[in-house]
Specification:
oxidoreductase; oxidoreductase activity; globular; 392 residues; binds flavin mononucleotide; alpha/beta; 11% strand; 14 helices
């Protein structure tokens, strides 16, 4: 990797310079007008912190436990599907997470087999959508368990909205010669990205090995997407069935409302992620940090509450923990690090977040992340959103 970068924003600028525009645009993602995408980061900026200057703690403890996994900082890798950013893709991310003592979420649309990712990081959760019939889901869960996944993340917030005001990249079905010829002009303007793949001897892989039935060829990204799109969406009974059939630690990702959080609890989940899918799904859903306080209060200690969407700094993590999350997950932050510098780039991002959490704890006068409370954060009037509570 090039030089150390000191903020996630800088990693993003490097990723933009290094990646072919279509690949960069696929990572930037967002949906429709980008209202949710923008609010996710803007909302953290609206929250204040109230620091002390003396009586501070000389040492700070950042460790915690999520879904039965001990992690050295309250930041996990959120599953993301597009990692043709770097030849080592998800394996590089998993190694970086292991090196920095945290857990990895692997997307079912990942380009690397789960077994290789588990080898790189035994603290790996497999992420699934509600896709295919129940038999196919059972077989997929069995394969994930056999490959060593230590938990399942079920992502349910997806409603297949595809337009973006700033345009979507045209991703090919597979990278064959015809597709390469079409993309050649923009790829040739990014020689360092291309050189990484040439050195690895492989083209970016757009298939989904973790969705392949034994002995069958891995479906293409779009083949798998089509199956998902035509699967009838799940009921809460289906969610309870999925959780029970998996049998181990289970996270439901994509909760925005109090009533859904309570239903997830009743379905027996271990954890929820308060999330709007990084602003990539239904536009105009509020930043999850606005919905977090009411959800955390409603579920109490019955369920582990995680938050994702919009985390770019250690102080964002501290704000989320103070308002009731046990940990956060990151998406784009590590994707920018991966694009900027492979495994060391992801380690760099995790180090930035660790450093930021540590300095915020120091300034707030706490010796542990577990001591954070809502009083550490200045929440402006009108900031929070209470969704899914009847106001009678
Ligand atoms: C390019 C991209 C691909 C994603 N793919 C998946 C996926 O396959 N499964 C999933 O559960 N979430 C997916 N997500 C959502 C992330 O897990 C996470 O919720 C989101 O990125 C968090 O917001 P942040 O990027 O602001 O940190 C994806 C996000 C991005 C940006």
């Amino acid at each position: 990797m090039g030089q150390w970068f000191e903020t996630v924003n800088e990693a993003q600028q490097r990723a933009k310079r290094r990646l072919p525009p279509s690949v960069y645009s696929a990572l930037l993602a967002g949906s429709e007008k980008g209202v949710s995408y923008s609010d996710n980061t803007a909302a953290f900026g609206e929250l204040g912190l109230a620091p002390h200057v003396a009586g501070l703690a000389a040492k700070r403890d950042l460790s915690t436990t999520i879904m039965g996994q001990d992690i050295s900082l309250p930041v996990l890798i959120s599953p993301t599907g597009v990692q043709a950013v770097h030849p080592e893709g998800e394996v590089a991310v998993a190694r970086a997470a292991a090196a920095r003592g945290t857990a990895m979420g692997l997307s079912s649309f990942a380009s690397k087999p789960l077994a290789d990712v588990v080898e790189a990081n035994p603290q790996t959760f497999f992420q699934t959508y509600w896709m295919g019939d129940r038999d196919a889901m059972v077989r997929r869960m069995d394969r994930a368990r056999d490959a060593g996944a230590v938990g399942l993340i079920a992502t349910l917030d997806w409603s297949f909205s595809h337009g973006r005001d700033w345009g979507s990249p045209k991703i090919p079905e597979r990278l064959d010669l015809k597709a390469m010829a079409k993309f050649a002009p923009e790829v040739l303007r990014r020689p360092r990205w291309l050189a990484d793949f040439v050195r690895s001897g492989r083209l970016p892989d757009l298939s989904t090995p973790n969705l392949a039935e034994p002995g069958a060829q891995a479906p293409t990204f779009f083949g798998a997407y089509g199956e998902w799109m035509t699967t009838p969406p799940p009921s809460w009974e289906d969610v309870a069935w999925l959780r029970e059939t998996w049998g181990g630690p289970f996270m439901l990702k994509g909760i925005c409302r109090v009533d859904d959080a309570l239903a997830a609890r009743d379905a027996g989940v271990t954890a929820i992620s308060v999330s709007n899918h990084g602003g990539n799904n239904l536009d105009s859903t509020p930043a999850p940090i606005r919905a977090l306080p009411a959800i955390a209060t409603a579920v109490g200690h019955d369920v582990e509450v995680v938050l994702d969407s919009g985390i770019r700094r250690g102080s964002d993590v501290v704000k989320a923990l103070a308002l009731g999350a046990k940990a956060v997950m990151i998406g784009r932050a590590y994707l920018w690090g991966l694009a900027a510098g492979g495994q060391p780039g992801v380690e760099n991002v995790l180090d930035i977040l660790r450093g930021g959490i540590d300095s915020a704890l120091l300034g707030l006068g706490h010796s542990s992340i577990h001591d954070l409370t809502p009083e550490d954060v200045i929440v402006p009037t009108g900031f929070t959103r209470v969704l899914g509570v009847s106001r009678t």
